[in-house]
Design goal:
three-stranded mixed beta sheet; alpha+beta; 401 residues; 17 strands
Length: 401
């Protein structure tokens, strides 16, 4: 199969990018070739099963290519316009939708979450993570605020670190049935925090609270609100929590690396029948759809004559709200990671670049100073920080002017 995969990769990469589009986007032919060589190497070495890379700069799509296979078991070549599980790249979409309600005056950032969802009153903080949900706790010293939920500083967990406490949190949130997002969020409110509100940055499932608040403020389900106010107007017709049966053949399979071997993952998340419209993960989308969302943000909240957020709201969301809590030259705004110090971060980039990624190896960043968006889609777990860094490095080295 490796021979066939290599042949597919070479075939897909032998179609050169248009010289005119490269020039308009300020990309160099040599730099793009190095980028292609890197992606080709990742696929042929079976560190990635597939990749779709899209670079938008100076108002044009300068580069868009696919490589690899959409499913190792069928060896079907990856094509443009296939569907990926966004995993945590759901978070920015739901956060933008939530901030549309902020602009309507439904809440202030300093409001207590418990003012709208009473189950979040009287939260407890775990004394350690070595025990499970029966761990000893202390009372939270302050009520969590909406800003803390948006910036991942409220103290919630995502259940991802592998400690006993996190494993049991993950079990309660994701591995027991929930009828809807209200059920999952009510469960979250019963679980201990990992830290006191406002005192640290902990990557968390707190965007699920945003999803629940969207329902509370709008009177609609999350998907109804998204389709009416964001996905529909942006013509993101392939972005949803469920994939229609007639489109299921476009779904890219998730793959996993275990003991150095890349295989199709035994567990594939359901693409239909989903009723928990979450803020942390759950949406399926395409690279082209996600570009529309990113273009709206790069254009300060407006696209093709329709305004979704004011420029000042986008500025607020992409400003660092967490000081130096994250370290490594990175901050966090309202829904996005932010590069605050390129030298400390140690990867090519720009201060003010904002970004996020997904657990199945989906990545994007927006660089306002370079007028650029870059999106890399794959479906490979576990998530690798190596690919995130190399994606940025190999994209930026392709810039000419």
């Amino acid at each position: 199969m490796r021979t066939l995969l290599l042949a597919i990769t070479i075939c897909l990469f032998t179609v050169p990018a248009g010289a005119q589009s490269l020039a308009e986007a300020g990309l160099t032919e040599d730099g793009v070739q190095r980028l292609e060589n890197w992606l080709e190497g990742e696929v042929t070495a079976q560190r990635l099963p597939m990749a779709e890379l899209l670079i938008y700069r100076n108002g044009v799509v300068g580069y868009h290519r696919t490589t690899g296979v959409s499913d190792l078991t069928t060896e079907a070549p990856l094509r443009e316009n296939q569907l990926y599980h966004l995993m945590s790249m759901t978070k920015p979409i739901v956060t933008v939708a939530f901030m549309m309600l902020y602009e309507e005056g439904h809440f202030q950032l300093t409001d207590k979450v418990a003012d709208y969802l009473p189950e979040f009153a009287d939260l407890k903080v775990a004394r350690n993570s070595d025990e499970g949900l029966q761990v000893a706790t202390d009372p939270a010293t302050s009520a969590i605020t909406i800003e803390q939920v948006l910036s991942h500083t409220a103290g919630f967990s995502h259940g991802l670190t592998g400690t006993m406490l996190d494993n049991e949190i993950a079990g309660a949130l994701y591995y027991r049935p929930h009828a809807d997002i209200a059920s999952r969020v009510k469960t979250l409110a019963t679980l201990p925090l990992l830290g006191q509100p406002g005192e640290q940055w902990i990557y968390s499932t707190s965007p699920d609270i945003l999803a629940r608040l969207i329902e509370e403020f709008s009177g609609q389900t999350v998907i109804e609100f998204l389709e009416e106010r964001l996905l529909g107007p942006l013509h993101m017709t392939d972005t949803d929590y469920n994939i229609p049966a007639e489109e299921s053949g476009r779904l890219v399979a998730n793959h996993q690396v275990s003991e150095g071997m890349l295989t199709k993952a035994a567990m594939q998340l359901p693409s239909s029948g989903n009723k928990v419209y979450g803020g942390s993960f759950g949406l399926y989308s395409t690279a082209a759809d996600y570009l529309k969302f990113c273009r709206m943000l790069l254009n300060k909240g407006e696209l093709d004559g329709t305004r979704y957020l004011s420029p000042k709201t986008v500025e607020l969301m992409t400003t660092n709200h967490v000081g130096d809590m994250r370290g490594n030259g990175e901050g966090f705004g309202l829904g996005f990671g932010i590069i605050t110090d390129v030298a400390e971060n140690g990867v090519l980039g720009s201060e003010g670049q904002y970004f996020w990624n997904g657990a199945y190896s989906t990545f994007f960043f927006i660089d306002p100073s370079e007028h650029m968006i870059a999106i890399l889609m794959s479906q490979r777990s576990p998530y690798s920080g190596y690919h995130e860094k190399m994606f940025r490095q190999m994209t930026y080295q392709a810039l000419g002017d």
